[in-house]
Amino acid sequence: MSGARLALTLCVTKAREGSEADLDALEHMFQQLKFESTVKKDPTAQQFQEELEKFQETIDSRKDPVSCAFVVLMAHGEEGVLEGEDGKFVKLDNLFEALNNKNCQALRAKPKVYIVQACRGGFIAYRHDQKGSYFIQTLTDVFTNQKGPILMLLTEVTRRMAQAELVQEGKPRKANPEIQSTLRKRLYLQ
């Protein structure tokens, strides 16, 4: 992790109360972890794709080496898609392809972390109107206050969310994030 650390956050804030609190928490986390962070608010479905492609071009055109890329995507969603500010949908798989080894030479064999905070059809991503989403708030707390490999930190996020009883619309709820990994080595963000 001796090279540049770059982060991109794409967040639909309209009709997603609490999103600003999530953006603030993420910005604090990225500062703590020494990431160069870019934030784009209220992208359309097409702009989600365009912003990731711009991010890929920025990474590939840098003179200094990049050691890690971190992408946070926050919006309403359904299974496998995100809803842009314009009400149209973009496929998550298309967004993930922008930084793969084929399309982003500078990140070949380098860690690419995607965090997606969105509903997935019947699976709800709970969000507090003022405090932000339970997932992003838990994630940023763990990532800024604990040390260890990222998979251990993500397991702690899952543990905390499983223990918490979230209250949404006056009813107790449980929520667990899904973690997928293709890491071949331990990744330390600190």
UniProtKB/TrEMBL annotation:
GO terms for cellular component: cytosol. Residues 103-190 form the Caspase family p10 domain. InterPro entries: Caspase-like_dom_sf (IPR029030), Caspase_cys_AS (IPR033139), Pept_C14 (IPR002398), Pept_C14_caspase (IPR011600), Pept_C14_p10 (IPR002138), Pept_C14_p20 (IPR001309), Pept_C14A (IPR015917). Pfam families: Peptidase_C14 (PF00656). Gene3D superfamilies: 3.40.50.1460. GO terms for biological process: positive regulation of neuron apoptotic process; proteolysis. One of its GO terms (molecular function) is cysteine-type endopeptidase activity. Signal peptide: none annotated. Residues 16-121 form the Caspase family p20 domain. Belongs to the peptidase C14A family. This is Caspase-14.
